[in-house]
Structures are given as C-alpha cells and as structure tokens.
Amino acid sequence: MPELPEVEVVRRGLERWVSGRTIDAVEVRHPRAIRRHTAGAADFAARLEGLRIGTARRRGKYLWLPVTGGGPAAQSAAEGLAPLVTPSVTHGLAILAHLGMSGQLLVQPHDAPDEKHLRIRVRFADDLGTELRFVDQRTFGGLSLHDTVPGDAEQLPDAIAHIARDPLDPAFDDAAFHDALRRRRTTIKRALLDQTLISGVGNIYADEALWRSRLHYDRPTATFTRPRTAELLGHVRDVMNAALAVGGTSFDSLYVNVNGESGYFDRSLDAYGREDEPCRRCGTPIRRRAWMNRSSYFCPRCQRPPRTG
C-alpha cells in the first residue's frame, strides 16, 4: 500500500495538472470504486458536475481534492427543485481518494486507450485535452465525496478528521508526539503505524527508520526518552524525504505517479525486503519476522531485541 512519499508524489502531480480545473462530466465505470459514497454513482457524478477543483491536499497517506462552485445541486435549488442530496450549508466539499493496494490517479489525454482496470473518468470543461482517471486493479480503493471540517484551513474531509498530522507537516508537534508515545504503552513499530498518533508511516518506512535508528521493532514506547524520540523522528523524516526525491518506492507496476511513472527508492532500501542480504552497517544478514500479518525486516546485531523479564 502506498505510504506518505508515494501519496505526496501523486498529490504534487494532481496539483500541477488538475487543481483549478472545472469538472464537466464524471463517468463511474465500476460501483465498487464509489462504494464509500453511499448515495451511489449517479449522485456522485451529478454533484461534481460544474465544480472547480481546488489545491490538492494530503495528510499522511490520505489524499483529497477540495471542490467549490454551484454544481447541479445548487442549480436545482435555484430553480426551486429538490437537489439529489441536500448540500451542506456550513461545510465545504472534498473528493477523498482511497488508493488502497493498487489505486492509481492518472492524467491522460482524451484519446489515450482506456486502461483495463479503469474505474472512474473525470472530464474537464476546458481545452487542455486531458482527463483524470482512477484505475484500480484490485478495486480496494475508490473516490468519495465528503463535507469538510468547518473552519479547517486545509479543508480536511470529516471522514479523516481523526487522522493525526504527519511528520513532514510543519504543524506536527514533536513534544506532543513524545508524550503520546509514552502514554500509549505499546511497542515502537505499532506506534509508528498508528495513524491516530502519527500518520503517513507504513511498514516499509517504519522498518527503514528503525534500522537507521538502531531500534528493534518491539522496543517498548515507555522506554523512550525525549532525545531518543527526537532522533527517531529525524530518521523518519530523512527516509521519507529521500524517498520523495526519487518518486517513492515501487516494487511492481501498481504504484505510479499521475504520469504513469514508477518511483525508484526500492533501490536504496536498507532493511525492508533485504532478507539474508548483509546489513549495510555491520554485514550481518538481515532477518525477516512475521509481524501483525506483515513482515518486519531488521538487523539482529544493530537492532537487538529488548530484554524481557
């Protein structure tokens, strides 16, 4: 599943190629792609027609496009007709994208052949000649329309209001994170993957940051001092920025940016996916252990397990 760097690469592409454009028509080609929009495909498409897309935004692994303008619901109200769904008066609206395991948001020319797993097509009311396509092989992802949190400067969809800020967010509070980490009474990798505590970190970048920090994934959070927490956050930020610089991590064709290009950070991974390969620090073979229906990769010498008993 894409993590913060991969989603940020997509967000930047959407900001360049989609933000500021007005939606002309929406075609939903598979109902699962809008299953989180409970009013259905027809309502989803109709409510978006005529709306203008704002600046693409992201929090952790979550991506959204604020939308503004009248649209058909407002037009119906102006004509004295009942709207498809009563529009919010105090909230804005945003399209929330769930990429899931294989979701892709691609900007393609109108005449480009349809992808085999094309689920949603968004056409724009301009002459730029491109459209936005949501492609999803496994149909775990999708798009949905949500009210935004009142007064929130980022126009955060209410469906993800519980998600914590991510470590690349200027408003992320390092001290508050440390205090919450100590209160949580868990182990460090579980804490890093808790999106209500810190967002955007997934299995790959957790293993990479822990390797850089020489921390075992089962280290209790209650043992962390402020300097140790600060060091770990520094490594989390470093590994994410390094991944961003090369377009994220791609192990196959499922993760690509809006132009269909893959990232290259998998060539720079120090721990994840390197079972039995030598640790780049000490030469000890990297080990893999089953962990919470996932795998954890670590160096048994550099990242010694915590003492028990």
Biggest sheet, open or closed, and with what strands and sense?
A: 5 strands, antiparallel
The chain-level structural class is: alpha+beta
Q: How many H/I helical runs?
A: 7
The dominant shape is elongated
Our estimate of the beta-strand percent is: 15-25%
Low-pLDDT windows of residues: 73-90, 249-255
Question: How far is the N terminus from the C terminus?
Answer: 36 Å
Q: Overall mean pLDDT score?
A: 87
Number of extended strands: 11
- Helix proportion range: 10-25%
Order of helices and strands: HEHEEEHEEEEEHHHHEE
Radius of gyration computed on alpha carbons = 21 Å
Q: How would you concisely characterize the structure shown here?
A:
The chain has 309 residues and is α+β, with helices and mostly antiparallel strands. It has helices at 4-17, 41-48, 71-78, 174-184, 188-192, 203-213, 226-245, and strands spanning 23-28, 52-53, 57-59, 62-68, 93-98, 103-109, 118-124, 130-136, 142-147, 287-291, 294-298.
3D architecture notes:
GO terms for molecular function: class I DNA-(apurinic or apyrimidinic site) endonuclease activity; oxidized purine nucleobase lesion DNA N-glycosylase activity. Residues 2-141 form the Formamidopyrimidine-DNA glycosylase catalytic domain. Its cofactor is Zn(2+). The active site is at 2 (schiff-base intermediate with dna), 3 (proton donor), 61 (proton donor), 294 (proton donor). Keywords: DNA damage, DNA repair, DNA-binding, Glycosidase, Hydrolase, Lyase, Metal-binding, Multifunctional enzyme, Zinc, Zinc-finger. The structure is a single chain. The protein has 309 residues and is an alpha+beta fold. The protein is built from 7 helices and 11 strands. It has helices at residues 4-17, 41-48, 71-78, 174-184, 188-192, 203-213, 226-245, and strands spanning 23-28, 52-53, 57-59, 62-68, 93-98, 103-109, 118-124, 130-136, 142-147, 287-291, 294-298. The strands form 3 sheets. Strands 2, 3, 4, 5 and 9 form a 5-stranded antiparallel sheet that branches. A hairpin with a 2-residue loop joins strand 3 and strand 4 (62-68). The longest helix has 20 residues, at 226-245. The radius of gyration is 21 Å and the shape is elongated.
